[in-house]
Design goal:
Length: 229
């Protein structure tokens, strides 16, 4: 699917060794309620130069898509080479790193926050992906048959898609509204508006309003209570 103007995209990239596949998965995250897969590239035995070229091309073609790359072992040097597009690296060091990112993808499916196309090779990876507990009590996640490169690529993209798009006030971030509000860019009205305190205005007439309420009690808390009524 061709990139749409003003849409936002993310890209997850699983690099290939000699046996595995290189997979780059693109998600449209414009709608915060659901991420939609719009593209995936799946190649084998093409070399890192080709894989980096595809990753860059996808980034530029899809409106500067945020990109996350498997940075395990040799992938770390690939991430360094992709700094020009702001690529991030994710290291699958230890079982927890893989478990966390795959479980996030599982939650997205359970909550209907992601959609993927019905492509046989993709569905088969989910069919044969499994986990087991090793004798050392660690969780091992891998494909019992075939590969899991698409799942890892989709998980990397899903992790980016799950991040908040706007932190907002309660998550510790505020937009600089002083430079975006039209009236505040006008020197004539700027000082007057910045001096305005909406919280003070809210409570300015509190005592006046309370004084006009018709149901005020004049009973003294120390007066005896009449229980004969």
């Amino acid at each position: 699917m061709v990139a749409q103007e003003r849409h936002r995209y993310v890209q997850g990239v699983d690099l290939a060794n000699l046996r595995d596949y290189f997979v780059a998965t693109m998600l449209d995250v414009t709608d915060p309620r659901v991420a939609v897969q719009v593209r995936h590239d799946r190649l084998q035995k093409r070399g890192y130069a080709t894989y980096k070229a595809i990753t860059r091309a996808n980034h530029h073609a899809y409106n500067g898509a945020r990109t996350q790359v498997d940075a395990t072992t040799l992938g770390e040097s690939v991430v360094e080479d992709l700094r020009d597009i702001g690529a991030e690296g994710y290291k699958f060091t230890g079982s927890e790193a893989k478990r966390d990112i795959v479980h996030n993808l599982v939650r997205m499916f359970n909550e209907h926050r992601i959609t993927i196309p019905y492509i046989r090779e993709l569905v088969d990876e989910f069919k044969y992906f499994q986990y087991e507990i090793t004798p050392a009590k660690n969780i091992r996640m891998e494909a019992s048959v075939g590969h899991d490169d698409y799942i890892i690529s989709l998980s990397l993209a899903g992790e980016l898609a799950s991040r908040p798009q706007y932190t907002g006030f309660f998550l510790g971030g505020l937009k600089d509204w002083r430079n975006t509000t039209p009236a505040l860019t006008n020197p004539t009205t700027r000082d007057k508006l910045l001096a305005y305190d909406p919280v003070f205005e809210l409570f300015a007439h509190e005592q006046e309003i309370i004084g006009k309420l018709p149901h005020q009690s004049t009973t003294n808390i120390n007066d005896p209570i009449d229980t004969t009524a």
